[in-house]
Amino acid sequence: MRDVPSQGQAFVADARPGVPAIDIQGVGKTFATDPVGTAPVLGSIDLSIRDNEFVVLLGRSGCGKTTLLNIVAGLEAPTSGQVLVAGRPVTGPGGGKGMVFQQNALFPWLTARANVMFAAENRGLGRGEATLLASDLLRLVGLEGVDAKYPAELSGGMQQRVAIARALALDPAILLMDEPFGALDEITRNEMQDELLRVWQARQKTVLFVTHSIWEALMLADRVVVLASRPGRIVLEQEISALRPRSRSSLPLVALHEAIWEALRER
């Protein structure tokens, strides 16, 4: 795949050596609609993520993991604290960050190739370059030959592959993923996990991935960060040193699954 410079690349290239790709500093969040006396959605979250690290935020529904992801993305502002990307405060979307949602949010009136081209052209590529890049990225995510198909003609897993290709078309240094496989059946979900790891290893992005599945976290992550709710807070951080591809029958991973399950049950 050809490398095309982007604003996202330039943004992160300016970072000083040793500066975290993402630095979450004392981030708290309270919504104005919360009843008086309700604990905040997020307490005070401190978390640093290294360049090219794959970090999974894991927790029950309502623990604030999606809110934290949206704050990192610049889609929401924290009530307290700040997020730095490559040493610079996050003030809004963009700036080297790409987002993939649970619902793929593809444009139904555009083909797979046109959906990816839309992102490429949005970052300033000409139509010819965008067309070539879209073909390259669809091939990268295993969708060669579906360029002319519309989202309604694709399976759920294929739609998510297009969504990932579209996010990569922005060439972000950081990929933010909010339960992107949550709506898929178990077999397709496992296949998509393998596909994501293959793409991540090929493109070397920093990934912050949200899930409520312990096994998904264990299959994907360099590091699992477990959140408990009200106030949202980190209750466990676990490095995963097992080589990929990983097996659910691995005894060390089974033991980690039990430890994480106990952390979730106790909070």
Task: Could you tell me the CATH topology label of the largest domain.
Answer: Rossmann fold
Computed Rg: 18 Å
Low-confidence stretches: 1-13
Largest sheet: 6 strands, mixed
| Mean pLDDT reading | 90
In total, the number of strands is 10
Which CATH C-level class of the largest domain is it?
Answer: Alpha Beta
Name given to the CATH architecture of the largest domain: 3-Layer(aba) Sandwich
What is the element string, with H for helices and E for strands? HEEEHEEEHHHEHEHEEH
Please state the structural category. alpha/beta
In DSSP terms (H or I, runs of 4 or more residues), the helix count works out at 8
Q: Helix share of residues? A: 25-40%
Shape: globular
Strand order in the sheet with the most strands:
6-7-8-3-9-10
Report, as a whole number of angstroms, the end-to-end distance: 45 Å
CATH homology-level superfamily of the largest domain:
P-loop containing nucleotide triphosphate hydrolases
Question: What is the count of distinct domains?
Answer: 2
Percent in strands: 15-25%
